[in-house]
TrEMBL record, chain A:
PANTHER family, per the entry: ALIPHATIC SULFONATES IMPORT ATP-BINDING PROTEIN SSUB 2, TAURINE IMPORT ATP-BINDING PROTEIN-RELATED
Protein name: ABC transporter
One Pfam family from the record: ABC_tran
Domain of life: Bacteria
Region: Disordered, residue numbers: 1-23
Gene Ontology MF terms in the entry: ATP binding; ATP hydrolysis activity
Chain intervals with Low complexity compositional bias: 1-16
Key word Nucleotide-binding present: yes
Domain ABC transporter: 50-276
Keyword Cell division tagged: no
From TrEMBL, chain B:
Family named by the database record: Belongs to the binding-protein-dependent transport system permease family.
Highest taxon, organism lineage: Bacteria
Keyword Transport: yes
Subcellular location: Cell membrane
Signal sequence range: none
Organism placement in taxonomy: Bacteria, Bacillati, Actinomycetota, Actinomycetes, Micrococcales
Gene Ontology biological process terms in this record: alkanesulfonate transmembrane transport; cellular response to sulfur starvation
Membrane topology listed for this record: Multi-pass membrane protein
TM ranges: 23-41, 83-103, 115-136, 142-161, 182-201, 207-226, 238-259
Name of protein: Nitrate ABC transporter permease
Pfam families, per the entry: BPD_transp_1 (PF00528)
Record domain ABC transmembrane type-1: where: 72-257
Major localization class: membrane
Natural source organism: Cryobacterium arcticum
Length: 318, 268
């Protein structure tokens, strides 16, 4: 895929243009989580369908995240790993203004996140394409408000080319495959020219080979327009392949004699060595993989090797 | 059944006989023809007296007679006009109220119980009030029909809007849509199939309320033909009015059905 930075011609939404910052067309914003916590209220009216679970656990408020503090550099790719239900999607939703924190704050480019923040674009776990619109019209939905018609059309065509869907521009979502729909969804998110790209297990529902291709596609896109990316995933290999840094969300071990505080927080932070695209067969990455899997509660069936002490790999704590 | 046997002997590539349009039309006409036959037979065999059930031919004669007097066309035209105007007003108001109640929780809490109670009022209960308020003119009848058409649209639209896929709405919001734009881009297209089935229900209801209005206070129209013939003991005209109502209701519903097919193809 050959997309040059010069192709990102579309104007940013006015709200996103901050004074002094950013310079150039490919602004990427820093994201700063400080002391973030999120507790789900016990109300049965929450949007999750918990009707089956109304027997016991609904009475109590459920802490999901606590004390999450991390700062993400502009243009960095941060992978958020964690077991299912640990709150990684919640963290992402809070970053995009789709949910609000119970404690702490998130700042993008120094200013607090607003509801459905226009500086972010979200790639959801499901494609979430409008079934009555063509693929091209769905991608156009992502264009910043006020984009001129002609410029918008050109941008959509360019994005469809980038994700390899030009031939399917006039198809309805129902008549393309899941992988294509997910690519269209990615193109829609990219159409915003986001300062922060939030991806919530974007390739989770894809078959293994398509997933690898999509990862390479994402790397191409990022190389062409290095925006800040927060990537939620449960796939350790994917995180190692794509991210500059990986945080592992989970329950902290209980201090001796005490009970552990409820809610997930950052239990590991790993800077992935090497530049992208990385060798999928790298032994160094394999060692990191084993360590991350152990952090996720998976028995690696082996012993840590010497790589952890090697000079080429910085590891936590640095 | 010969219809079911034929496709098995036909080449595999051919469409089954039951999905062909001509078969559907002919098959749908079978039962009415059968009813007509039984009707005719029971008259000719003298199973019922002609004063209770006149033969089909005398209904036809009554139709021709009324047509020659110019009344038949007038009655059909005025009844259809009342239904269409009342339906248009009621459906438009129902769409607006349904959108309001379906989208806003506050409006839901405020309006829904009252509207639900008004909906429970039987159509005939409105008639005396409407006649006193609006006199025996077109307004009172059209108002009654509009009331009848309002509720099916209101109910289906409000229900459908409440069940629009939350994920799609959230995606719309995440891409900067809100308010009217969100409604136009996500919520309205998502409920269009339900809106149209609500419209079909409303149209059927409009014909029901038409007869209620015309039975009691009218000097022309199919409902008037019914009540007038009932007073005169003209069973042939009563049957004629019933058949005409059935045909007109079916016809208008079929027109909406075509529209529904097109819309579902476009939006779903």
């Amino acid at each position: 895929m050959s997309a040059s930075p010069a192709t990102r011609t579309t104007a940013r939404p006015a709200a996103a243009v901050r004074t002094g910052e950013p310079t150039g067309t490919d602004a990427a914003y820093a994201v700063q989580f400080s002391g973030l916590g999120r507790t789900f209220a016990p109300s049965p009216g929450s949007r999750r369908r918990t009707r089956a679970a109304t027997t016991t656990s609904v009475e109590v408020a459920r802490p999901v995240l606590r004390d999450v503090s991390i700062s993400v550099q502009p243009g960095e790719v941060l992978a958020i790993l964690g077991t299912s239900g640990c709150g990684k999607s919640t963290l992402l939703r809070i970053a995009g203004g789709l949910d609000s924190p119970s404690a702490g704050s998130v700042r993008i480019d120094g200013s607090p996140v607003t509801d459905f923040d226009t500086r972010c674009a979200v790639g959801f776990q499901e494609p979430r394409l409008l079934p009555w619109r063509t693929v091209a019209d769905n991608v156009a939905l992502g264009l910043p408000r006020g984009t001129a018609r002609e410029a918008g059309r050109a941008r959509v065509a360019e994005l469809l080319e980038l994700v390899g869907l030009s031939a399917f521009a006039d198809h309805r979502p129902a008549s393309i495959s899941g992988g294509m729909a997910q690519r269209a969804s990615l193109a829609r998110a990219l159409a915003r020219n986001p300062g922060v790209l939030l991806l919530d297990e974007p390739f989770g529902a894809l078959d293994a080979l398509t997933r690898l291709k999509m990862q390479d596609l994402l790397l191409d896109v990022h190389a062409a327009a290095p925006t800040t990316v927060l990537l939620v995933t449960h796939d350790v290999d994917e995180a190692l392949q794509l991210a500059d840094r990986i945080i592992l969300l989970g329950q902290e071990a209980a201090p001796s004699g005490g009970s552990r505080p409820p809610g997930a927080t950052i239990v590991q932070e790993i800077t992935v060595p090497g530049t992208r695209p990385r060798d999928r067969g790298s032994a160094e990455l394999a060692e990191l993989r084993g360590r991350l899997l152990a952090g996720l509660g998976i028995d690696r069936h082996g012993d840590p090797r010497g790589v952890a002490t090697g000079t080429s790999i910085p590891h936590f704590p640095y | 059944m010969t219809e079911t046997l034929v496709p098995s002997t036909a080449p595999a590539a051919r469409r089954p006989l039951t999905s062909r349009r001509s078969v559907r039309i002919v098959g749908g006409l079978l039962l009415p023809l059968l009813i007509l036959l039984v009707w005719q037979l029971s008259s000719t065999l003298g199973l019922v007296t002609a004063s209770q059930l006149p033969p089909p031919a005398s209904v036809w004669v009554a139709a021709v007679d009324l047509f020659e007097r110019g009344q038949l066309t007038l009655y059909v035209a005025i009844s259809t006009q009342r239904v269409l105007i009342g339906f248009a007003i009621g459906a438009a108001l129902g769409l607006a109220a349904g959108a309001l109640v379906g989208l806003s929780r506050a409006a839901d809490i405020f309006f829904a119980p009252t509207l639900g109670a008004i909906r429970a009022v039987p159509s005939l209960a409105w008639v005396p009030l409407l006649i006193i308020w609006l006199k025996i003119g077109e307004e009172s009848k059209i108002t009654l029909i509009a009331i009848g058409a309002f509720f099916p649209v209101y109910t289906t639209v409000a229900q459908a809007l409440r069940h629009v896929d939350r994920q799609l709405v959230e995606a719309g919001r995440a891409f900067g849509l809100r308010g009217v734009r969100l409604f136009g881009a996500v919520q309205l297209p998502a409920v269009i199939p339900s809106v149209i089935s609500g419209l079909r229900l409303a149209l059927a209801q409009a014909w029901l309320f038409l007869v209620a209005a015309e039975l009691i206070a009218a000097s022309m129209g199919l409902g008037f033909l019914l009540s007038d013939s009932g007073n005169n003991g003209r069973v042939d005209r009563i049957l004629l009015a019933i058949i005409l109502l059935a045909l007109l209701g079916k016809l208008t519903d079929a027109i909406l059905g075509v529209f529904e097919k097109w819309a579902i193809k476009k939006w779903a």
